[in-house]
Amino acid sequence: MQLSPELLLTIFKDDPGRALSARDVVARLGAPHSYHALVLHLLEALVGEGRLVRLQKKRFILPAISQKAQGVMHVSAKGTGFLLGAGPGGDDLYIHRSNLDTAIDGDTVEVEVFPGRHGEQEGRVLRVIERAHEWIVGQFVRVGRGGTVTPRNAKIGRWVEVRHAPPGGLPPDGAWVRVRIHNWSAERHDPLIGAVEEVLGMPGERGISVLVLLRDIGVDLDFPATVNRQAGHFHPPPHAHELERRLDLREKRTFTIDPATAKDFDDALSIDHLPNGNWRLGVHIADVAHYVQADKPIDAEALKRGTSIYPVDRVVPMLPERLSDDLCSLRPGEDRYALSVFMDVAPADGAVTHYEISESVIRSRHRLNYAEVQDLFDRPEDARRLPFADAADDLLALRDLSRVLNRMRMARGALDLDLPESEVLCNPQGDAVGLARHDRFESHRLVEECMLIANETVARHLRKAKLPFLYRIHDLPDPASLERLAPALALFGAKVPKKIAPSPQFYQPIVERLRRVDGGHIGLTLLLRSLMRAEYSPENRGHFGLASKCYCHFTSPIRRYPDLLVHRALKAWLRGEADDEERRESLRSSLDAVANQCNLTQERAEGIEREAQRVKAMEFMKDQVGDVSEGWISGVVRKGFFVELVDYPVEGFVDARSIGDDHYAPDEFQIRMVGRRAGRTFRLGQRVRVQIIRVDAMAGEMDLELVGKTSARGPGKKGKKQRRRKQPGDPC
Fold first, then answer.
1. Are the C-beta atoms of residues 163 and 170 closer than 8 Å to each other?
2. Using CB atoms within 10 A as the burial measure, which of 26, 362, 464, 476 is most buried?
3. What is the pLDDT of residue 31?
4. What is the Cβ-side half-sphere exposure of residue 340, based on CA atoms within 13 angstroms?
């Protein structure tokens, strides 16, 4: 038989879209097995000419039929991959585990798209463009002179071989370590090769769970030496030159209101009554931009971090502590630079009739927390006995002002989901000692409303001045998302009209219904997830949730980079530098990349905080194993359902196989778990009694089993009122 490259190509053209090995080609030619080496040589030559594409496991395919795509790989717990948005019509592209090559979760990859086994398009990884995991965190086990590391992230799907001891010697068995990967093996079943670079600690050590989480995700806990050196050169205010050019508000009564455990205070308030009956609200924000100047080491690090992270038992700040906890923190009795926004607010409708923005220097009179301010609101007759009695009238006036501002926002159509807030209570050493749902104090609403109106006022000012900055936007929701959610909301008695209007006024009746039913916060959570995410953008598209046509973040420059950019824009305007067209265009051209970075870091921080809360909550729940509690069914999946406990704001999982009286499977909407024989159902919002069977704190998992007779009723009228509180700040 005379073999040629063209003859081999005809084999592939006869079956386009199918990957073939040399063995497959030999079989289709009807040639003897001895031809295998020659066929493989010719196929490799065709790859070199670009006429074939070589896949893993020595399979080949025609390149002409391949549509390529790039993106970030997401690997499921089962080991199959997805490339988000790379499929037809923007759907996720499925990648079978055999087509992942050496790619793991988080890698940026190039894939080819081809007709899959069931007629739908699938993907094959052609190459890894960028590795997501230069380091991997896992548990170490000694083997000979080295050892193995099992990654904490099960989606990685491969273990790491450590062939040599680090300079300090091998860590003990079971230690959590961080290893640097030196060799990515060509086959998925082979181990990765790495070296131990950091020993994090042993299981059970204080704070180890959150530390492992942070290092696994790649969070840097320490600042680079260049950043610390720059921060060390700053001097505390005031300086004579700055006092001459700033508005001196040191004699004005200002105060901060924060959580009792807060260390950085970046916003202070003041209020005056004007002769015309209006209030003059003062919002004074730490002048971080005075210290953190563009293109300096601290600025580069702040942009890299994007935001501070609050993982329950610690803070990972955006700025060095010299700034975040000291020079930029509006501590009582100390002179601090600020940007002050004074707004004249009409009591009738909450309209801002006039505003002024100034660089200032203030001296906060009091450092207040929400509980003590709420105590004043609950018992104003005892105001004289309080250590902040001189500010009592101001606080009561601010309460009245915040009520007016809230009515104004609700009247224009703002959407207020007011979800329950849960907290892991920790002792001073960081140990989890309790879980709580918090009351929502009116003192929280006070601060929130003052920050909202300041953010909106500043955004309108900068837009009018035509200055480039980052808006905080919240796009209109996709009506289809609410339509898909309608069957779930119906379980709570919230009917979604067939004609869906993407407006806050349309959503508000649904929200009100969910508030009135037992377990309705489950429905509120689903509703919130169906909305678009708020994000940063150089383009103003309005803010749906706040019903605001123009909005930005200005009030937290210590912990959010976009606020720092807004401060720089304001300071340029105040100093008459805003007309520099070259400088303006340079900033405008960079805003897309900065917005993308800030959106990514915010999403990462929120994910870390959620996971840290879950992990720390499970640390507390380890001591509750064996307890029986009631809970609401909060989610239905293929293998079972999640239950949020009534006694503790934490979720656990009931495996459907553990129920035992039937074979259960979810319905088409994944809102009910239905028994195939008897038809018994468990549905979202339903109360059930469960026993805590197993808790894995490091994984953030809790297994539950149904106990005794479960409630047949679904969501209904509220029982005992749950204690709730929403933390202050911008809701979106």
1. no
2. 362
3. 85
4. 27
pLDDT tens by residue, 475-495: 999 888 888 999 999 999 998
pLDDT in tens, 2-51: 788 888 988 888 877 678 889 999 999 888 888 888 899 899 888 887 78
Beta strands in 131-191 (DSSP E): 135-143, 146-151, 160-162, 176-183
The rounded distance, in Å, linking the Cα atoms of 158 and 640 is 27
The strand pairing partners of 689, in sequence order, are: 630
Strands of 267-273's sheet in order across = 247-249, 352-363, 335-345, 279-286, 267-273, 255-258, 366-369
Q: Does domain 66-130 have CATH number 1.20.1600.10?
A: no
The proportion of the chain whose per-residue pLDDT surpasses 70, expressed as a percent, equals 94
Residue 464: pLDDT above 90?
yes
**Which of 148, 206, 156 is CA-nearest to residue 179?**
148
What is the pTM assigned to this prediction? 0.84
Amino acid at 725: R
> Long-range contacts made by residues 495-503, C-beta under 8 angstroms, separation at least 24?
502/476, 502/477, 502/478, 502/544, 503/413
Per-residue pLDDT band at 717 (split at 50, 70, 90): very low
Q: What is the spatial distance between Cα 451 and Cα 602, in angstroms, rounded to a whole number?
A: 19
- Mean pLDDT confidence for 604-608: 95
Residue 217 has pLDDT above 80, yes or no: yes
Only one residue has tokens 């004249």, namely 344
Instruction: Answer whether CATH 3.30.43.10 is correct for domain 135-203.
Output: no
Q: Secondary structure of 267-295 in the HEC alphabet?
A: EEEEEEECCCCCEEEEEEEECHHHCCCCC
For residue 521, give the H/E element and its range: helix 520-530
Q: Is the pLDDT of residue 720 over 70?
A: no
Assign domain 5-63 to a CATH class.
mainly alpha
